[in-house]
Design a protein that fits this description.
- The chain is an alpha/beta fold.
- It has 3 domains: about 5-115, PAS domain (Beta-Lactamase, 2-Layer Sandwich); about 125-300, P-loop containing nucleotide triphosphate hydrolases (Rossmann fold, 3-Layer(aba) Sandwich), CATH 3.40.50.300; about 305-435, Helicase, Ruva Protein, domain 3, CATH 1.10.8.60.
- About 40% of the residues lie in helices and about 15% in strands.
- The protein has 18 helices and 17 strands.
- The longest helix is centred in the C-terminal third of the chain and has 15 residues, at about 310-320.
- The relative contact order is 0.09.
Length: about 450
């Protein structure tokens, strides 16, 4: 039970319970900076040595030479900082955010919001070119990216939709000797075959209706740098053949052109599909697969690293505050529980969309469950109920299962499901047809 002053009545205990429900680990100080209330979560974090009536600066800063919390409170200003965990000699750290109670001239006290951060080193937080993690699998992937970046070999990044494959491609480029060269990206699933061929390889004037001048394609634009082919498994077979010639000859022939143009490009591709299965099904050329898949890199889904959800929420919330997009400073325990229990079929992209929704709707400094999209809050309640939902469909195919999950979350709305998965409604419909989840043209 939360520790409270004996003089507090039931109403005061209720207020303290409400504070814990909203803010988790928290201390309440009077205007003299003495601790008057401690939530149970704060007591568990700091240990038994949090006596009511003690001076908070002494408990949190001790006799240390660096006393940011003590100095800020003494000056009457709010602060957000990170301090060593009080009373320990380990590398554990605690984030502290101070919230004033009352205006400056009538300050009644402070609320201190506490959050324990991961230890530094192997168990700590690692960042690579905008990707954040504390997961061992992601850290292994980071190490591979750093080593592979110096190579000229082609790389195939395999990962679910929205997991961050383009960020991996950017990291491979930024850490490579080509970092001062151009980086170009093209989504192979977003364009029809005829337009995709022209976008990739360029075209000569008069090669087709509307070609009023010569145009340089992405392959040639990326000369001296890196070309990222996203959703490469969606390449039409006729375009695959031409890409294979580029990889073999290191030259590109524009549509309607007669003279091959030498190019110096490193190719990084990405797909959410297993290319070997696509080859077996006759949808992808085996010789091209071996050219593109010299070094495979597997990107874990957000569902496979649930411990990163809290970290990513902190990072994204902090970035949004810097841009002035939100006043949110804290996530309530109930909202965090819903976020961590969600299976994230759209991965990090879906998490960003959920937080953008919360930033737009929230009014105060604490993110509440009511600030989250209805389908996420509903899914969290269903998972915690005594019986699992009966209407959710499942598939043995991982991609089909992700699509079905997204449709379940959105109550069957393809438009909302497409947003969850981070793709257009047309792309979702095309994939549903390919997976047998929607009728083929001409079928009822």
């Amino acid at each position: 039970m939360p520790r409270v002053s004996p003089s507090l009545h039931d109403a005061d205990t209720l207020r303290l319970d409400a504070l814990q429900a909203l803010a988790g680990a928290a201390l309440v100080l009077d205007k003299e900076l003495r601790i008057v209330e401690v939530t149970e979560a704060a007591e568990q974090m700091l240990g038994a040595g949090v006596p009511i009536g003690a001076l908070a600066p002494k408990i949190l800063c001790g006799a240390g030479s660096k006393r940011p919390v003590a100095e800020a409170l003494a000056e009457g200003r709010a602060i957000q900082t990170v301090i060593p965990h009080p009373g320990t000699t380990s590398e554990r750290r605690v984030s502290i955010r101070t919230v004033p109670i009352g205006p400056v001239r009538a300050r009644r006290g402070w609320v201190l919001l506490l959050e324990e951060l991961p230890e530094s080193g192997q168990a700590g937080v690692v960042e690579l070119q905008g990707m954040w993690t504390q997961d061992a699998g992601m850290k292994d992937m980071f190490r591979i990216v750093k080593r592979v970046a110096a190579s000229e070999a082609t790389v195939l990044v395999r990962g679910e939709t929205g997991a961050g494959k383009e960020l991996v491609a950017h990291a491979l480029h930024a850490l490579s000797p080509r970092k001062d060269g151009p980086f170009y990206a093209i989504n192979c699933a977003a364009l029809p075959a005829s337009l995709l061929e022209s976008e990739l390889f360029g075209h000569a004037r008069g090669s087709f209706t509307g070609a009023v001048s010569d145009a340089v394609g992405h392959v040639q634009k990326a000369h001296g740098g890196t070309l990222f082919l996203d959703e490469v498994a969606e390449l039409p077979l006729e375009v695959q053949a031409k890409l294979l010639r580029v990889l073999e000859s290191r030259t590109v022939l524009p549509v309607g052109g007669r003279k091959p143009i030498p190019v110096d490009v490193r190719f990084v591709s990405a797909t959410h599909r297993a290319l070997r299965k696509e080859v077996e099904a006759g949808r992808f050329r085996g010789d091209l697969m071996y050219r593109l898949r010299v070094i495979p890199i597997f990107l874990p889904s957000l569902r496979a690293r649930p411990g990163d959800v809290r970290l990513l929420v902190q990072v994204l919330m902090g970035e949004a505050r810097k841009r002035g997009e939100t006043r949110l400073e804290q996530v309530s325990p109930e909202a965090l529980r819903l976020l961590e229990r969600h299976d994230w079929p759209g991965n990090v992209r879906e998490l960003k969309n959920v937080l953008a929704y919360a930033f737009a709707l929230s009014d105060g400094p604490v993110l509440l469950p009511t600030d989250l999209p209805p389908e996420l809050a509903t899914s969290g309640r269903l998972e915690l109920g005594p019986e699992p939902p009966k209407e959710i469909r499942r598939s043995a195919d991982p991609e089909a299962d992700r699509i079905l999950r997204a449709l379940d979350r959105s109550s069957g709305s393809r438009e909302r499901a497409a947003k969850i998965l981070g793709m257009s409604r047309v792309t979702l419909w095309r994939r549903m047809r390919a997976l047998g989840l929607a009728p083929q043209p001409g079928q009822p």
